[in-house]
């Protein structure tokens, strides 16, 4: 199974690695263990690293924890080369940058907490789901 995650799921997952009941944390644990293959574009990885530098995350994670998680995700992620362009599908142009890698790698799932993206529902063969929904679908 191949998934794409947005930067906020990865950032929330970084905090959730320590929590048993964190859906983003459980998704990130699966990715880091290699249970789920994740494909990420360079823009998503850069946004993930930038998000972890925001005061909210910097107050809760050491610099070493932030750097180590970004490096670990980078190590396990497949490079989602952007072979397909997406314009005007999402309500915000920056969200098209999350859809493009999912389409480019023919991901089965796009895991996001973004309400506007979730509202798209299945799109171009990609199931757009929240972290908790992704986990529930795996248990079926």
TrEMBL record:
Transmembrane segments: none
PIN domain segment(s): 3-116
InterPro entries assigned to the protein according to its UniProt record, in alphabetical order: PIN-like_dom_sf, PIN_dom, PIN_toxin-like
Pfam families named in the record: PIN_3
PANTHER family xrefs: SSL7007 PROTEIN (PTHR34610)
Annotated protein name in UniProt: PIN domain-containing protein
Species, as recorded: uncultured Thermomicrobiales bacterium
